[in-house]
Amino acid sequence: MRIRNETEADIPAIRALVSTAFAGKAYSSQTETAIVDALRRNGALSVTLVAEDESGIIGHIAFSPVMIDGEDLGWYGLGPIAVAPERQREGIGSALVREGLAAIRKRNANGCLLLGDPNYYGRFGFRADARLRLAGVPPEYFQALCFSGEMPAGMVTYDAAFEVTND
User: Fold this and answer.
1) CA atoms of 3 and 99, how far apart (whole Å)
2) Which residue intervals define the domain N-acetyltransferase in the entry (predicted)?
3) Range of the domain at 22
4) Do the Cβ atoms of 158 and 73 come closer than 8 Å?
5) pTM of whole model > 0.85?
6) What is the CATH number of the domain that holds 47?
7) What is the DSSP letter of 107?
8) pLDDT confidence of 41, banded at 50, 70, 90?
9) How far apart are alpha carbons 13 and 49 in whole angstroms?
10) Residues 8-31: tens digit of each pLDDT
11) Which of 26, 55, 149, 151 registers the highest number of CB atoms within 10 A of its CB?
């Protein structure tokens, strides 16, 4: 398996992968494919990586800037992340997270936020922190990983791409 930056030629395969990875998942809004497309259109995909092997693209991860209390504090949001259903539990997602976090650190990120399973993301150092809030989500699933400085406090907003619907 190889992890690399996405290219324009990868976009159709990424769309198919993300759609398949989230199909039928109770925790999914089924808008993840539209979110990735909208992030790309908005120029908000700061880091977007694919995992591939001889069969093609088997994983994808996106990172985009977030605002905290309306300010750009050098923090990024992780997500969506997708792995082909038949390839899950092989370490592909973990490898994408590690590579992605390293890539945003190279961009001098101060930290990363995500909405996800605390049991999974805790292994990378993510923890819920009451100082950071995301409207409408259970606080234990909204997690932060601070790279430098103090943990900020405030309401977090993601790019408008996260508000897309499938209508």
Assistant:
1) 8
2) 1-152
3) 2-163
4) no
5) yes
6) 3.40.630.30
7) T
8) very high
9) 13
10) 999 999 999 999 998 877 676 778
11) 151
